[in-house]
Fold this sequence. Notes:
CATH architecture of the largest domain: 2-Layer Sandwich
Largest sheet: 6 strands, mixed
Shape: elongated
Strand order of the largest sheet: 15-14-18-19-21-20
Oligomer: single chain
Helix content: 25-40%
CATH class of the largest domain: Alpha Beta
Number of strands: 24
Number of domains: 4
Strand content: 15-25%
Structural class: alpha+beta
Amino acid sequence: MKNTEIHHLVEHLRSLPRETEWVEFKHNNADPQEIGEYISALSNAAALNRQSHAYILWGVEDGTHNLIGTTFSPRRKKKGNEELENWLLRMLTPRIDVHIHEVNVNNLPIVLFDIQPASNQPVAFGGQEYIRVGSYKKRLKDYPEKERALWALFSEKPFEAEIALTGATVDDVLTLIDYTCAFRLLGIPLPDNRKAILNRLLAEKVILTRSGNRFDITNIGALLFAFDLRKFDRLGRKSPRVIIYKGDNKIQAIKEHPDPGSDIPRPGYAIDFETLLGWINDQLPQNEQIGQALRRKVRLYPEVAVREVVANALIHQDFNIAGTGPMIELFDSRLEVTNPGLPLVEPLRFIDEPPRSRNEALAGMMRRMNFCEERGSGIKKVITAVEEFQLPPPDFRITTQHTIAVLYAPRGFANMDRQERIRACYQHACLWYVSGKEMTNTSLRNRLKIEKSNYSSASHIIRAAIDEGLIRQAGGSRKDATYVPFWA
Length: 488
């Protein structure tokens, strides 16, 4: 946020007839615990009152709203040995964005905390949730009717419909949104006048109308079609990062895209998707394959598999987890794609379960532009491509707050460990079942390039997968048995 914008915002807040449930005025009060409790209370109250921001403003006299300045300097203040800002953010659950601005207004020092409203659950500080009741800070559990209303609100409004930028002028909209590219990707003829362009952006819910010929830019509009996501405070960290490492650990990064030291724009997902994939694929090593008469270069990883795991990371991330975004990391022997948020489908069922997305509007718009599918076939494409390339089985795993998809570089059967062999067996059984077939010892040997004379090796893997409850025998005798996934 520019200084001029902060000055206008301060004047707007001062013009309010009194403190609201989402705005708090202070002079010099700098007690860390109280600040944290106010962040929780104001964030929850802003959500309940359908406000796009909450604020704490230091340097304004309560009651008169006169500018008096403040001695509070949050970036120099500590809690114990920890910087105040880090301590406050660490104590918030879930993590939300809190932007701190220190400026001079009329030659008086002013501090503004710009606070993200709660979005998918009430915000707690130090394990305790707070709410504003009038101008008072209270514990949320003491007001069960407000708590019920908050939870009802969270189930009602998706992240995509929330506001990324409020009060934009017509020029702002046409400067911040790459509407020519958006119309091309959506297959819509470009109108020849501003009014028609704005009307179409309104119809697509890229923008919403406000009074005074102003507009709000929605999260989905900014995420997909922004010229530069950094122009939208809460979305700047949602731009995907690609990091290339030397070796198989994170000790030495040799390249990053976009270059963190550069000032090049970070476009919206739809605007940048093909460019992003092109940059990733250009970094991938190539192998030479020799056919009957021709030599050809092929990527180390199937392009369709890379495309699907990157698209999934963008679409299915949990945007309510602040301070993190999608990350693609390339090591010597693997490609890892990480997105914030836990999956809505158990990873073992990624191949067969009907698709579910926490960001349905985003998924729908990406599908319209042919960047992804909603038929649940994305992971099936990944597994199919991996088997065609004879690669080790991909791994889909979760951490406490993230989902990780891993593609592995070529490695023969002899160099796979026990768990990789079992995972390959399970994924192969899943792939064949959803294709209307049942896995056999022969099909698994073909998948893993096991010689026919080594029939028993495939049998041992099948038995291990059965013992782990991943597959079961479906029919046939011992020699011609067929197998299906445990859920079939």
